């Protein structure tokens, strides 16, 4: 039987790649990763462990991925992993959090392949440590989202909003109107990481690798 590991490479800093992830990568036959034009954080994070291995880049059109793209990727994975061998699909953060791997895993159901997940440190966890903003305290409700729906803000105490590079002003306005403080973290875990709380600084920053943490103000 073939085996596929979904490996979370963490938020980007190589020293936050888990020991289990590193050992798994070293012991597999082929490495899979999404093809990104330019920076590929997952590959950069794991580069010390993939040298000399076969690398297969899977194409997912930015912003317009259809089910056919996941089906095609699943077929390539099945083809490239040798019988009795194993492969790794590398993804930033954790494979079970807003990851392409989730959809590939679904398309592989029913095929003769064993799937195992190797968890990674999600960016919002690292960002909370970077900014010293608690994600949630005892008795609180925490929301993780990539699109903020203001209608549910009255039911949560804290939140993390991912993928904020294009709609930061809207997110900040929604949070302010619903009595939330906000903290913007870019490049969490990197040496160039920055934490901003001022609205002007947040809106002026254009870094794609960023997120916003919010907490409801105490009354």
Please give a quick description of this structure.
By secondary structure, the protein is of the alpha/beta class. It has helices at residues 19-26, 41-45, 47-50, 67-80, 100-107, 123-131, 168-177, 199-204; strands at residues 2-8, 30-35, 54-59, 86-91, 113-118, 142-145, 158-162, 180-186, 194-196, 210-216.
Task: Give the arrangement of secondary structure elements.
Elements: E1 2-8, H1 19-26, E2 30-35, H2 41-45, H3 47-50, E3 54-59, H4 67-80, E4 86-91, H5 100-107, E5 113-118, H6 123-131, E6 142-145, E7 158-162, H7 168-177, E8 180-186, E9 194-196, H8 199-204, E10 210-216
Parallel strand pairs: 1-4, 1-5, 2-3, 2-4, 6-7
Antiparallel strand pairs: 7-10, 8-9, 8-10
Helix pairs in contact: 4-5
CATH topology of the largest domain: Cobalt-precorrin-4 Transmethylase, domain 1
- What count of domains describes the coordinates? 2
CATH class of the largest domain: Alpha Beta
Content-based structural category: alpha/beta
Q: What proportion of the residues form beta strands (DSSP E)?
A: 25-35%
CATH H-level name of the largest domain... which superfamily? Tetrapyrrole methylase, N-terminal domain
What's the count of strands? Answer: 10
The CATH architecture designation of the largest domain is 3-Layer(aba) Sandwich
Low-confidence stretches: none
Shape: elongated
